[in-house]
């Protein structure tokens, strides 16, 4: 509850009391003042409730934004960690392959030549 919420409720009740006193005493001016206070109090009360609702929504929005940021950071950290893992794994496999190719140079040259010949044969156009 905020100040407008409380003051609006009090003003509405005061307006009802004025209207009742004006009706009992036969004073139409007092009844009109009471009706005006009732309407103003109801409007202020409604404004106070709307303000409370807006504050709650803003607080909830900040909470959701904070939670989304934390989840996003966690996903980013996980993706970065996995990326490092796969990069390291690829580097290890590449080094192992290069080491094996270096140990078996003749076989490597024969395989590369066969692949190059096969690709050249597939790419060339039919004459």
TrEMBL record:
InterPro entries: CsbD (IPR008462), YjbJ_sf (IPR036629). This is CsbD-like domain-containing protein. Residues 4-56 form the CsbD-like domain. Keywords: Membrane, Transmembrane, Transmembrane helix. The chain crosses the membrane at residues 105-123. It comes from Methylobacterium gregans. Belongs to the UPF0337 (CsbD) family. Pfam families: CsbD (PF05532).
């Amino acid at each position: 509850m905020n100040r407008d919420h409380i003051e609006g409720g009090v003003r509405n009740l005061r307006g009802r009391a004025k209207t009742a006193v004006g009706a009992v005493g036969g004073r139409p001016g007092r009844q009109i003042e009471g009706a005006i206070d009732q309407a103003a109090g109801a409007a202020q009360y409604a404004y106070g409730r709307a303000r409370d609702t807006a504050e709650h929504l803003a607080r909830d929005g900040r909470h959701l934004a904070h939670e989304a940021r934390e989840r996003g950071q966690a996903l980013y950290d996980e993706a970065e960690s996995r990326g490092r893992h796969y990069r390291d794994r690829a580097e290890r496999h590449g080094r192992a392959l290069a080491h094996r190719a270096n140990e078996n140079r003749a076989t490597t040259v024969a395989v590369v030549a066969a692949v190059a010949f096969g690709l050249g044969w597939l790419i060339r156009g039919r004459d």
